Amino acid sequence: MSETPTRPTRILAIDPTTKGFGYVILDLPRDLVAWGMAHVKGEKRTGAIFRFQALLDQFRPDAVVLEDTTAKGSRRYPRVRELLETLGKIARERGIPVQTVSRLAVIAHFSKDETATKHSIAKTLSVDYPQLAEKVPRKRKIYQSEDERIAVFDALSLAVTFAGK
Questions:
Q1: CB neighbours (10 Å) of residue 19?
Q2: Are 109 and 160 in contact (CB under 8 A)?
Q3: Distance, CA of 18 to CA of 109 (rounded, Å)
Q4: H or E element: which one contains 65?
Q5: What is the mean pLDDT of residues 58-87?
Q6: Helix (H, G, I), strand (E, B) or coil at 27
């Protein structure tokens, strides 16, 4: 008799930024355990890998959720795609399953007509996770750079979309 794969109970979701990555630890179905920005100084790739491994050691997730950079709608630079592939490989080498979620799947999860934006998703998540309400950045103007705090909401949106499958 074969065993049925068990659904993970604790997931780590990551969203890379130019300065490191945003992360969330979510105990399913909806308990937000930890969140934050992992800032990386110096060599970004090595620093991000080190911080990722530290999160794996500290929180011992049952699964890792990353953006599917091969899916339609992904606009990630090659170096970010490579970093996400490396993080996935590290998790799998530790026996941790890796799940990927496309950006379009996130948008579809948070809107019926696929008009959700990063800001509208962050506002929705701040209602469900009030501990993040004060972290929602202001809606940016077209000429402004994205606030780095949005990476925490992007990571959470990956986790919530995965959990909703």
A1: 16
A2: yes
A3: 26
A4: strand 63-67
A5: 90
A6: strand
Does the residue 34 lie in any domain?
yes
CA-based nearest residue to 37, from 48, 50, 23, 47: 23
Question: pLDDT (tens digit, 9 = 90+) per residue, 3-42?
Answer: 445 677 999 999 999 899 999 999 998 899 999 999 998 8
Q: pTM for this structure?
A: 0.91
Residue 96: give the domain boundaries: 10-163
Residue 86 contacts residue 34 (beta carbons within 8 Å): no
Residue 57 in 3-state DSSP? helix
Quick check: helix, strand or coil at residue 82?
Answer: helix
Task: Please enumerate in sequence order all residues whose Cβ is within 8 A of that of 160, keeping only pairs 6 or more positions apart, or say none.
Answer: 26, 30, 109, 125, 128
The whole-angstrom separation of Cα 96 and Cα 91 is 5
4 in a structural domain:
no
Give the pLDDT score at 3: 45
**d(C-alpha 51, C-alpha 21), whole Å:** 9
| Overall number of domains in the chain | 1
Whole-angstrom Cα distance, residue 22 to residue 13?
8
Sheet holding 63-67, edge to edge: 31-39, 20-27, 10-17, 63-67, 98-101
Residue 150 belongs to some domain of the structure = yes
Q: What is the CATH number of the domain that holds 42?
A: 3.30.420.10
